[in-house]
Amino acid sequence: MLHYDVVVIGSGPAGEHGAVQAASYGKKVALIEKEAVPGGASANTGTIPSKALRETALAIQQARSRDAHGIEFSVSETVTIPELMGRRGLVTAREHSRIRNRLNAAGVEQFRGVASFADAHTVRITLADGSFQDIQAEVVLLATGTRPSHPPQYTFDHQHVYDSDSILMLDTVPRSLAILGGGVAGCEYASMFAALGVHVSIIDSKPRLLPWLDAELSIAMQDLFALAGIDMHQERRAQRLEVGDRDVLVTLSDGSRLVAEKVLVAAGRQGNVESLDLAAAGLSATDKGYLEVDEHYRTKVPHIYAAGDLIGFPGLASTSMEQGRVAMTHALGKKYQQKVAELLPVGIYTIPEVSSVGATEEALKQKGIPYVVGKTPLTENARANLIGEAVGFLKLVASPQDGELLGVHCIGPHASELVHLGSAVMALGGTIHYFTQAVFNYPTLGEAYKYAAYDARAEMKRLGLPGAQLQPPAVSAVPKTA
Ligand SMILES: Cc1cc2nc3c(=O)[nH]c(=O)nc-3n(C[C@H](O)[C@H](O)[C@H](O)COP(=O)(O)OP(=O)(O)OC[C@H]3O[C@@H](n4cnc5c(N)ncnc54)[C@H](O)[C@@H]3O)c2cc1C
Ligand SMILES: NC(=O)c1ccc[n+]([C@@H]2O[C@H](COP(=O)([O-])OP(=O)(O)OC[C@H]3O[C@@H](n4cnc5c(N)ncnc54)[C@H](O)[C@@H]3O)[C@@H](O)[C@H]2O)c1
Description:
The protein is about 30% helix and about 25% strand. The chain is an alpha/beta fold. The protein has 3 domains: about 1-145 and about 270-330, FAD/NAD(P)-binding domain; about 160-265, FAD/NAD(P)-binding domain, CATH 3.50.50; about 350-470, Enolase-like, domain 1 (2-Layer Sandwich), CATH 3.30.390.30.
């Protein structure tokens, strides 16, 4: 039987980065993937493909809004969604070769097949022809990810009723689309399809879209959705779907009805555990198919770790890769990175983008922590105007005592890039005075930080708060000149 120090199951962000991390410590590592291509939901069905469609939708929206008189824009009735994902083929192919090259360079041995436990230290690889090979492992990393959940009340025929995987195979751009579920996936697809000229309705059980976001941000997002012509049916569920010749009739929980040519169900995900035979290793999953782990990503069987979507919240490619690395660092007794950073940014690729890092006003209020807010509209930012996307705002939340930056919330062009600057300042314990004193390139979106910081400082001055004054620690956050 083959023997490895570490066996990783799944080649998505958690598996890839976990395997490479383990190999970098000089360990003998095997990675098992059931699909012909590596990269999981990130490269193949979720992150990258959805962002490829978004780039096309954004380009169409920008072309429409750039006042190019005499040029009309419309989406052809015969174009397919795969065709609209312009650069998807190229980006995905490059991701596949990047992942393979990295794994090969690190010396990770790759196996194709479905992995399951024969016992807690033996992983069985079942090949397409039914034959199998057993391999022994000192440490196992489970990174098998999730798939769209299929609530039993809906029938998914992938011709009228789709999930977030199959929607990307649409063979035409529909006239109308009803999206069941206003989570991140539902919101992103809603704004993409609306930009493609589709009449979109969102049906969501919550009173506000993405209610965990800073309230001002999520309300601004809802307002911009309404301006884009997206109909919102909130605090309601879709009770029944009736597929007709041309359209689907959707009956909501309050008895109201709507008609759409296609329906996308984006109502959460569930863990890929069925094929693993967890019981053979002494493990079990939650009812959503997630695995419970401790702060080191260790399951209740100490040499078996789990990372990525399989452990539930937050379910992002960005955090999954860090969890994979941290899990392997702990498993192999190394000290370098024992924890995933506490500041977790979230990037939502709606049109416009929404991004956030650190504390929200609501969270601070709940904890009784005082704060001040500084805000600047991106309509006043020269770069946002130049690129024809002068919409949204940048908002800073800071301590009234010394101006320490506590949170950054942004809706507008490239928001997911923009929050990284605030995130770095926060991680280094900086204050809003860094922004008031720093020189920014001009014109840039980043320059908006200066005006949001001035706004926070003005508020502190008005209220006579000490944070308005430059404090010694704040000065040290400004680059030294001598
Ligand atoms: C529409 C959509 C858009 C998204 N956009 C973003 C985004 O913009 N930013 C972001 O950070 N995140 C985004 N995500 C989330 C992101 O895709 C996931 O968080 C990420 O892919 C999770 O990585 P993972 O490694 O845990 O699992 P996955 O990427 O799901 O990989 C799991 C792998 O395990 C393999 N596998 C499963 N079972 C077995 C088995 N028994 N044997 C062998 N192999 C097995 C699977 O084939 C798969 O390749 C998006 C998700 C969706 C659905
Ligand atoms: N940019 C990003 O980071 C990004 C983008 C897309 C997806 N993702 C990830 O993909 C995963 C899936 O996202 P998701 O949006 O499908 O799940 P989700 O769990 O985030 O949201 C599902 C939403 O659907 C609602 N809902 C559930 N059943 C319903 C019903 N029958 N009728 C009406 N509403 C219903 C829920 O209340 C919730 O608001 C998440 O982990 C998410 O983080 C991330």
